[in-house]
Amino acid sequence: MTMESMINGYTELVGLMASPIRHSHSPAMQNEAFRRAGINCVQLAFDVDDTNLKEAVQAIRVLGLRGSNVSMPNKTLVGQYLDKLSHEAQLIGSVNTIVNDNGLLTGYCTDGIGFMSSLKNEGIDIKGKKITVVGAGGAATAIQIQAALDGVAEISIFNVKDQFFDAGKETVRKIQEHTACKAAIYDLADQDALRHEIADSCLLANATGLGMKPYEGITWLPDISYLRPDLIVTDTVYVPTMTKFLEMAREVGCRYLNGHGMMLFQGAASFQLWTGKKMDIEHMKQWLKRLEF
Ligand code: NAD
Q1: Tell me: the pLDDT tens digits for 237-251?
Q2: Which domains does the chain have, with CATH numbers?
Q3: How far apart are CA 248 and CA 204, in angstroms?
Q4: Does the pTM exceed 0.70?
Q5: Is the CB of 29 under 6 A from ligand 1?
């Protein structure tokens, strides 16, 4: 069944509210997943920022949209206009998915869920273990909080001493207050601490933008001596698919994953929240390979 033949008077709508927005792969991905599942729903992208976010959320109620994805710059702002927040969205302080249940709008954050699911899909279990995550921005916070909620034993966070460092401190405080996970934050400039924390971690994650434009070919990892073959190395970046950081991991013989899995599984979690159905992951993996990233 083609998308065109599906659209009729019963077609449901989910949005994607962000600015800029036209570059996003989400509508193509969600629409293929709806088509594949035979669900009469479409996703459309709307250019929304902090100047019109409140009205856009009101439009979800008035027009009866099934929900929406939310991206920058709205992720940390939209919560105030919703009726309820999920536990992870409250702790992360960010919403990327809104579900409309008969006018009651609930905000969720599926970014960290996407990260954890992408590992599970690869047969990687980090529960009860220690991980090191570099970054304290949006993606990093989602990964760190979700990992702690899902039973990771210890998280060492590294960040440069920029405006995100305090956010990292706040993440440590929340993890300690609300979960059984141990957490600490370090200055990324402290290379001895970085080496020490990586040494007994099972996984090292890059959750900074280093590796993608305008930082292509750059990583914060000083050299490959920080890595070892049994370390799992992940990158949130997925354009390019191979970053300098992942190249170093490949050189050492580490198992490595780029940000494609996190992107796919955060979308799958949103899809399930809207439809109550699981996305056909194997089909979507093949479909995503055909997209030119
Ligand atoms: P953000 O702006 O919220 O955070 C940026 C982070 O990068 C901060 O921790 C900041 O301190 C760090 N940083 C910036 N410049 C740095 C430098 N020179 N050296 C070291 N650290 C530096 O961004 P975000 O939304 O968290 O996104 C981070 C990356 O994750 C981006 O590449 C984004 O595309 C990717 N991402 C991927 C997914 C996915 O599904 N795969 C989801 C969200 C974000």
Answers
A1: 999 999 999 999 999
A2: 3-109+262-289 (3.40.50.10860), 112-258 (3.40.50.720)
A3: 12
A4: yes
A5: no
